[in-house]
Specification:
The complex is a heterodimer.
Chain A: H1 3-29, E1 67-69, H2 79-83, E2 89-102, E3 109-122, E4 141-143, E5 158-160, H3 185-190
Antiparallel strand pairs in A: 1-4, 2-3, 3-5
Chain B: H1 2-11, H2 20-58, H3 74-84, H4 95-110, H5 130-138, H6 140-151, H7 155-186, H8 191-197, H9 213-229, H10 241-244, H11 254-279, H12 291-309, H13 317-345, H14 351-355
The chains are: A alpha+beta, B mainly alpha.
Chain lengths: 191, 357
Amino acid sequence: MNGVARWFRNVQEAVTSTAKGMAITARAMFDPRTTIQYPDVNIQGARLPDGYRGDLSPMSDRYRGFLHVDMDLCITCLVCEEECPIDCIVIEERRCEKVNVVSKTTGRRTLRVKEATRFDIDIGKCMYCGLCVEPCPTGAIHFTKEFARAVSDLDQLVFKFVDPTRLDPPVEETAAAKPRRVSHATHVASS
Amino acid sequence: MTKLVEFLSSHLPFLAAVPHWALYAGVTTAVALGIALGAVAPLAGFFTFAERRVAAAMQARIGPNRVGPQGLLQFPADAVKLLMKEDIVPAATDRVLFVMAPYVCFAGSFLTFVVLPLGATIYVTNLNLGILYILAVTSIVVIGIIMSGWASNNKWSLYGGMRGAAQVISYEIPVGLSILTVIFHTGSLSMVDISEYQKGAGGLLGWFLFNNPFTFVAFFVYFTAALAEINRTPFDIPEAESELVSGYHTEYSGMRFAIFFLAEFANMFIVGMITAVLFLGGYNGPIVNGPHWILLKALFLVFVMMWLRWTLPRLRVDQLMNLCWKYLLPIAFVNMLGSALWAAAMPGRRFFGLIAP
């Protein structure tokens, strides 16, 4: 191709590609906006305008939000507390009536012999590593998709999953009268 | 203006002692400043907001919509924020030039408003050299750019300033040649005369855009070159973020930066106005002629500039020079010759006039 023909082709290309590009951007102007105006819109609502499906669905299933503990599933095995690399989980436990708990994750039955009198997670310290979630035998501790929490006091960032005022009275010690084992967690709690 | 001066000197006794020329100069300056602060600054400010909203729309976002209704008060908020900022002049700068540069830039773009006609009788002055005056005055902007680039004592700023100079000087030529295609027909450089020439035929076919094929192409050449002259994307290499941080205004902050910004956005509007006068019939339009037409046209062209900005990627420096010297310049020359021949062969005849006179 000689120079003159190339020159004209370049001009033509420049004009057509600019026109094409402008057509695309013009069409994009009328596309629905993907922005969700978060504090105004309740993103936990069932349904939102603009085809948004709601229920925090834009977050991936593996989103690591705040930790939550399902106390009905918790067998107080203290694995999560031991695994936590920054010790933001504090558990105090005591004996309780034996109950079978069905694991949410594996479906296996586990015997609960202890219950927690205190289960605190300092979410302000938590680094969302997930090391507590993985070993949990019953799937009691898990990540939620919640992420918004602005507080005026750091103490409010400590999630308390056991309300000490609503605990059942302690189970009577059996005749064997084993001395109550002091959880190794207590010294962490007191520190 | 003369009437206003006479009115003032006859009604305010303490002004009687002031020489007439001084009073005239004072009143003119005051009125001009009034226009600058009252009309240009809010307009340019509004464009900064409009630009963000247009950009957002093209990117499936919403854009600033928090301050005031639909975010309309975003730009006053930004202006207040910039005003409150600390006035920083970096240590090793050329202080005088550094402080002056934004105002040179602003003055260069703002002076053009003097000759832009909003209507057949609505203008500050009807200079018989109108369009030449605009070409001369807008070139002052590049002095401001070089000044700021040099005074900042910063390699990125200097690069930006030099690029700006190279760009404006090269693109001045296609701009001038494209303007000539129009001047051949009107025989006058006055912006009002050029607008008046484009009357008639439904207020639309009289436009220079439809005058003949050469002016039609000249419109696009002019618009492209003018975009480059005001350093708009895709020709914004003087302030190419990815290469030069922020180009010639890297070291600027606070109100001085705001003045640069204001000048830039005022420039957009000025190019829109000039293009509207030269090629789109100025204040002539269907139904009723008047200021609304030229403002609508100018605002539409400003929108097109934003549209282009969010469509095209930035040109490289060599591509920019290629475009100017290898493409726009030859096309502009052919246009100029063709338009001159048209004017000589068929004076006063328009392209659509040939089909149905």
